[in-house]
Design brief:
Layout: H1 7-22, E1 29-34, E2 62-64, E3 70-72, E4 75-82, E5 85-90, H2 104-114, H3 122-125, E6 128-135, E7 138-143, H4 150-157, H5 163-176, E8 184-190, E9 195-200, E10 214-219, H6 223-232, E11 237-241, H7 246-250, E12 255-259, E13 267-272, H8 282-291, H9 294-301, E14 304-306, H10 329-338, E15 345-352, H11 356-369, E16 374-381, H12 383-391, E17 397-402, H13 414-418, H14 433-443, H15 448-465, E18 468-474, E19 477-481, E20 484-485, E21 503-504
Parallel strand pairs: 1-10, 1-11, 15-16, 15-17
Antiparallel strand pairs: 2-3, 4-5, 5-7, 6-7, 8-9, 9-10, 11-19, 12-19, 13-17, 13-18, 14-18, 20-21
Helix pairs in contact: 8-10, 14-15
Length: 506
């Protein structure tokens, strides 16, 4: 007797398959393509320049969740008894990949290593005064002075490495053979072949994770070669997809994209030299802001997310009701007259080379500012030359990018960019004593709600003074096969997914 499948049974099977495919599956190999496998795999060395490969083997004491709240990782809990003291209560039963125990002694050793001459994150942690062991699983850290973003530093930069492995291999050896507590264990690195392999940590402290058996990272410097590899299935994840290749990838029908921005404080902007004519005049800076149509700029450039202040809306330090200047050329002309520039002026807009989006930005800004008699001459420089000229105060108007200082704390944008005492103040040469006071107060208070009030007030003053034009954030993307899941949402800091959440449909 011939068997048939009724429409009801077929529908049930389809619904069941959808349910199954939506549930994480174990096994499989993630094949990732990247332009460059980093020279050092040691997270305390060359930090800030790392790719995904710098993080799959390691954990931090605490981590951000998607609401930008801190959550437990290697530290089960923590407390802040006063504004310079931080006590971490560590997770028990965790072991490094080499079998050695993760405990308070290991945490103390890690912070001391991060404060050593070897470390390239040393300046971040210079605020630490003492590190004290309370017991085998409790560490007390005292700071030299109040620094509210300290937990942000711990979450972003304090990856825990195996003391025993470093002592056995030495720093140079560890750069080639990382050992942490993370979800994946280093297996092999073939520099000649351009291939780095991590395998599943069978003894990972987080239950039921990771899902993947293996991650293979392949160095494919050429963008078109990497594109072809993704199209043909030789890789199923491209860390560096070009926006110009996205339409071609969409034709394959099985590729997804995600912005690398996450909830980072990354911004792109035009900066003024606030101490030099004509931009030492606030009305001129405000006129430029009114003369630029942000929505048109974003449409012209493409792949640009609008922002209206020094912090993106995802930051808890940004006031959703902050005052903003929208496009108003008549208002811009009126301000130019009030500032004494009714006949306009000429200015150089300095930008860097080999960046098509920045080229497009310069062209449309030149066209829009011509409407209020500002003649813009575009000067394209090598990135290093541009930064050097800005640091030497040799500019009036420039196109810039800021990654939030590697921080998800509002401090990474507000204090670093706008405090007159900041080492990055050269970016705009902005001075406002009231802003300095508010930002300093925010560094000394650990209560987030109180800090938020101070940042909202500082943000309002900064927007009024307009030391920059915050037009948007240039968006780059990750491209990955539709059979790969758990990529979105990326880590709040952007750029990379959580390695232990990725799974592949079998």
């Amino acid at each position: 007797m011939k068997k048939t499948i009724t429409p009801i049974i077929l529908l049930a099977l389809l619904l069941f398959s959808c349910f199954v495919s939506a549930s994480p599956q174990y096994g499989g190999i993630l094949k990732m393509g990247t332009r460059l496998i980093q020279p050092s795999l040691d997270p305390h060395h060359d930090m800030g320049f790392g790719g995904f490969e710098k993080y799959v083997a390691f954990n931090t004491l605490i981590q951000y969740d998607q609401n930008l709240e801190f959550q437990a990782e290697l530290a089960e809990s923590w407390e802040i008894p006063d504004n310079i003291t931080y006590i971490f209560y560590l997770r028990k039963g965790v072991r490094f990949h080499d079998g050695t125990e993760f405990n308070a002694e290991a945490v103390k050793w890690n912070f001391e290593r991060m404060l050593s001459d070897y470390s390239q994150v040393r300046t971040l942690f210079d605020v630490i005064d003492t590190i004290e062991l309370i017991d085998d699983y409790t560490v007390k850290i005292k700071l030299k002075h109040p620094y509210a973003p300290f937990l942000d530093l711990v979450a972003s930069n304090a990856l825990m490495v195996s003391p025993a492995a470093v002592e056995k291999m030495g720093n140079e050896g560890f750069q080639k053979h990382p050992v942490g507590t993370g979800p994946f264990v280093f297996e092999t690195l073939d520099r000649q072949k351009g291939e780095l392999v991590f395998v599943k940590n069978e003894n990972y402290w987080r239950e039921s994770r990771p899902y993947l058996d293996k991650i293979i990272i392949r160095e494919i410097p050429d963008d078109q070669t990497r594109l072809f590899a993704l199209q043909t299935g030789d890789i199923d994840y491209d860390n560096n997809v070009l926006t110009s290749n996205m339409d071609e990838l969409r034709k394959t029908g099985n590729i997804k994209f995600v912005s690398i921005l996450g909830k980072s404080n990354t911004i792109d902007f035009l900066t003024f030299n606030c101490q030099e004519e004509p931009f030492n005049n606030k009305k001129v800076r405000q006129a430029v802001s009114y003369a630029l149509d942000q929505e048109t700029i974003a449409q012209f450039i493409g792949h640009t997310e609008l922002i209206y202040g020094p912090l993106p809306d995802t930051s808890w330090g940004s006031n959703p009701d902050k005052p903003v200047r929208k496009y108003d050329p008549e208002k811009a002309r009126k301000l130019m007259i009030e500032a004494g520039y009714e006949n306009g002026f000429s200015v150089k807009l300095k930008t860097w080379s080999n960046d098509p989006k920045r080229d497009d930005l310069a062209l449309i800004v030149k066209e829009m500012l011509a409407e209020i008699n500002i003649n813009v001459e575009i000067e394209v420089l090598e990135t290093g030359t541009l930064f050097q000229q800005l640091m030497q105060n040799d500019f009036a108007f420039a196109s810039m990018h800021w990654g939030g200082g590697g921080s998800l704390d509002p401090n990474g944008n507000l204090q670093l960019l706008f405090d007159s005492r900041s080492m990055y103040n050269w970016i705009s040469n902005y001075r406002n004593i009231e802003v300095d006071t508010l930002l300093q107060q925010a560094l000394e208070i650990t209560d987030r709600s109180e800090r938020q009030k101070l940042y909202w007030k500082a943000e309002e003053l900064i927007i009024e003074d307009q030391p920059m034009i915050w037009f948007g954030r240039f968006v780059d993307y990750i491209a990955y096969s539709s059979k790969v899941h758990g990529v979105e949402p990326l880590k709040p800091a952007g750029y990379f997914p959580f390695p232990d959440e990725i799974w592949i449909e079998n």
